[in-house]
Structures are given as C-alpha cells and as structure tokens.
Amino acid sequence: MTQFKYLIIGGGVAGTTAAETLRQSDPTGSIAIVSDEPHVFYSRVMLSKPNFFLEKIPFEQIFLKKESWYTEQNITFLGGKKATGLNPTEKTVSLDDGVILQYEKLLLAVGGYPRKWDPQKIEGADKQGIYNLRVLEDAKAIIQTIKTAKSAVCVGGGFVSFETCELLRMKNIDTTLLILEPYYWANIWDETSGLIVEEYLRQGGVNILKNEETEKVLGADQVEGIRTKSGKELPCQMVVVGIGITYPVEPFKTCGLDCGRGIKTNEYLETNLPDVWAAGDAAEFYDVVVGEPAQAGNWVNAQTQGRVAALNMFGKKQQFRMVSFYTAQGFGLTIAFVGDVRPLPDRTIITRGSKELKSYGRLLLKDKELVGATLLNRTPEMAPISKLIEKDVDLSAHHAELADPNFDLKTLAPS
Ligand SMILES: Cc1cc2nc3c(=O)[nH]c(=O)nc-3n(C[C@H](O)[C@H](O)[C@H](O)COP(=O)(O)OP(=O)(O)OC[C@H]3O[C@@H](n4cnc5c(N)ncnc54)[C@H](O)[C@@H]3O)c2cc1C
C-alpha cells in the first residue's frame, strides 16, 4: 500500500492550490493528487470564455500547470483515477483501479458536477449532441459541434448558460433558451433582475421560451430537435444543459462523513472525520462572515479554500474568512454577485436602480448587516459592498440611502 503524508482528491483549483501551499510549508512531506480527469491542472473558467471557446488563443493556454511542475515540486499526480471509497479508521482511500492509498491528512476537493438530464424522465436524453459544460472534453466536443451547427437550444438559467448563449450567438448559431421558470434565474433573484437579463439576451438574438420543460429529444442517434411539454418543437443540432449542480460526495458518504448538499466543514474546513478536510465548490463550510453554513461556486473561493485547508492540514489553525464574488459578462451586460446571495426567508432585500435604467442592484441584509448583493451593470459597487459585508457595518439607519441608485456606497464603507 502506498502511503502519502498529504493525499488530495481532486486536481482542480482547490486541490492544486492546496498541494502548492503544502509544498511551500513542508518541503519534504509526500503529497499526492488523485484526479478522475486525465489532465494536469487547467482553467475550468476559460472553458466558457470567448478566447478559448472560439479558438482565438492556442489550445495549450488552458493549462495552468505543466507536467514538469508536478515533478519539480515532488507532487505525485495520479490522473485518470477515481477515488471510490474512504476508510477513516484505516486512513485509506480506494481507487477505481483497485489501488489503496494510505494518508496521514486527507483533503477532499472534488468540485461540483452539472446535473444531467435523466433518460428515465426525458425520452432521448442520451442522444449525441447533448452537452453539459464541465470538463475539457465537454468544451472540445462543443467547439467541434459549433463548427457545423445551425441552431442550438440552451436549457436552464445561470452564469454558464448566459455565457454559452453569447458564445453560440458569436458563431451566428440560432439560439433558443428554454427555462422552466417564469423569468430568468427565478430561484435566485427577483423578476426585474430576470427581465433585464432577458432583454439583453433578446437584443443579442436569443429566442427565450419561459415556463417550458423538455419532454423529448428528437432525432435518431443524433439530436435533431427537442419537443417541449407544451408541444413546441425546436429543431436544433445541439443542446447545452445547465440545470443545476450536484456534488460527487457519494464515494465518501458511507464511512460517516457528514454531508448535506456538499461536504460539511467548520470554519477551518475540517470535516467531522479526523484528519479529513474539504475545500472548493464541494465544501459546505461554516461562513464566519455571515454566521451560517454556506457553499460557494467560484474560482477565487475554491483557490482560497485550497490554501487555507492546506495551512490547517500542515498544523496552522487558520479560519476561512472571505466575501466571495462572481462576475459574468455578455451581450453588453455585466452580472456580479457578491457575498451570500441566497434569498433566505430572514433576509431583507433592498433594491437600487431599475429595469429602465438598465442598472439594478439587490442588497441582501440579515438583521442590521449586509450579507450579499446581486448587481446588474453596477460592477463598481462590488468593492464597497464587499467592505460593508466584511466589516459587519450596521446599516439599519441607512435603508433609504441603500435604495437610492445614485447614492455612493463608498461613503458608508469603512476605509
Ligand atoms: C464552464 C465553467 C465556467 C466557469 N466560469 C467561472 C467564472 O467565470 N468565474 C468563477 O469564479 N468561476 C467560474 N466557474 C466555476 C469554477 O470553475 C469553480 O468554482 C472551480 O473550478 C471550483 O474548483 P474546485 O477545485 O472546487 O473543483 P473542480 O474545478 O470541479 O475540481 C474538482 C476535480 O475533482 C475531480 N473529482 C471529483 N470526484 C472525484 C473522485 N471521486 N476522484 C477523483 N477526482 C474526483 C473532478 O473531476 C474535478 O477534476 C466556472 C465553471 C465552469 C464549469
């Protein structure tokens, strides 16, 4: 049985940053990364960005580490191998090729997976030409398909779906966006926000069908169209599905690892099992800024958690504390999320701006303090909002100013 001082499952940004941080702290301790993807560390973010997607940059630029980096750093990279089980008593992880690895300290940095269509529920959901965009192979397949496709359907709202619509339109592909809800991203924000996004999508040539669900995928082996539950038929050569995220925690759950949607941790990113940490999209961590469990799905959060988890694995006691953010641009619109944007029942929401102004923000407050914001064409407000959240500023006397779109939030933010 091969033993490693530090064993990391997942070679994305959280896992790789953790390995890098561990090596900086501990020059000699053995480190291994197990990744079910065959590739060395690459930028998942770039998969949906025009430069890569439209092949404007050399393909190799997607890679953020070279193979030689792992050798130089003395980090064992076990690519193309999936961790299938965890035994916390023996301190072992089993892989899908039968190999068993022993660890002293283990990090689970397994990320998130786009939810797939269920062929039991949607007839023909396994046809060729149906894509989820998560890994390099997905992007490569989509890049090939858009070379000949004339029309496409994107299913579901969200950041990646918004970006995908723009990429398809850049290739002059007739694009229809199909959403189950009455407006774009209805589960996360209000109708005004949804309608603003839809206006930009429409201006960019995207046809939007709302309150619609796919019933059947048409075609023989290859997608030729989809039929909705209301009976509309949409001819297309490709479908990109973005209907939510799941977390690949199944292999680790049976051994008593405490999981919710993701892997539960405290503010030090420690799980309930001894010497086991979690970081990145899969970590359902205790967010000390908001004072509640939370889960984030963005690059900088995953990178920072990878670093903090590694420091804790090395023996430093470091809290994870961060106001996370996510931005996306497309069709001339900038969408930004700051902090915790979950529309929970105990949040007070103050809006600033309007659909007419094409500039609209929603500030989410818990008790007296700001915890998050969604911003449309108001990106410069990200910095003061971040500061207001981070510094727990009491805003109870300032609701009128917060609602005024011309009020400069910097004046409330501590320097
Ligand atoms: C197309 C796309 C565009 C995005 N754009 C942005 C953006 O613009 N800005 C932004 O902030 N974020 C963006 N994101 C989100 C961002 O990429 C993620 O938040 C980030 O990659 C999470 O890093 P992670 O290390 O936690 O997980 P991941 O990057 O998902 O890495 C986890 C790795 O673990 C592997 N794994 C899972 N289970 C096992 C197992 N049992 N055994 C072995 N390996 C396993 C996975 O296959 C994966 O390789 C985007 C995501 C996608 C898919």
- Shape by Cα distribution: globular
Look up the CATH topology of the largest domain: FAD/NAD(P)-binding domain
- The CATH architecture name of the largest domain reads 3-Layer(bba) Sandwich
In the CATH scheme, the class of the largest domain would be: Alpha Beta
Biggest pleated-sheet summary: 7 strands, mixed
> Got a strand count?
25
Our estimate of the beta-strand percent is 25-35%
Count of discrete structural domains: 3
Bound molecules: flavin-adenine dinucleotide
Radius of gyration: 22 Å
Helical residues, percent:
10-25%
How are the SSEs ordered, and which strands pair?
Elements: E1 2-9, H1 13-25, E2 31-35, H2 50-53, H3 67-72, E3 75-79, E4 83-87, E5 92-95, E6 100-108, E7 113-114, E8 130-131, H4 136-145, E9 151-155, H5 159-170, E10 174-178, H6 191-203, E11 206-209, E12 214-218, E13 225-228, E14 233-235, E15 238-241, E16 245-246, H7 250-253, E17 263-264, E18 276-278, E19 283-287, E20 292-294, H8 299-314, E21 325-330, E22 333-339, E23 347-354, E24 359-366, E25 369-376, H9 382-390, H10 399-403
Describe the overall structure.
With 415 residues, the chain is α/β, with parallel strands linked by helices. It has 3 domains: 2-43 and 64-112 and 251-314, 3-Layer(bba) Sandwich (FAD/NAD(P)-binding domain); 130-241, 3-Layer(bba) Sandwich (FAD/NAD(P)-binding domain), CATH 3.50.50; 332-411, Enolase-like, domain 1 (2-Layer Sandwich). It is 22% helix and 29% strand. It has 10 helices and 25 strands. The chain has helices at residues 13-25, 50-53, 67-72, 136-145, 159-170, 191-203, 250-253, 299-314, 382-390, 399-403; strands at residues 2-9, 31-35, 75-79, 83-87, 92-95, 100-108, 113-114, 130-131, 151-155, 174-178, 206-209, 214-218, 225-228, 233-235, 238-241, 245-246, 263-264, 276-278, 283-287, 292-294, 325-330, 333-339, 347-354, 359-366, 369-376. The strands form 6 sheets. Strands 1, 2, 3, 4, 5, 6 and 18 form a 7-stranded mixed sheet that branches. A 5-stranded parallel sheet has the order 8-15-9-10-11. The protein has a 5-stranded antiparallel sheet with strand order 21-22-25-24-23, sandwiched between helices. A hairpin with a 4-residue loop joins strand 13 and strand 14 (233-235). The radius of gyration is 22 Å and the shape is globular. The termini are far apart. The model has no long low-confidence stretch (mean pLDDT 96). Bound molecules: flavin-adenine dinucleotide. The site of flavin-adenine dinucleotide has 33 residues, from helix 1, strand 2 and helix 8.
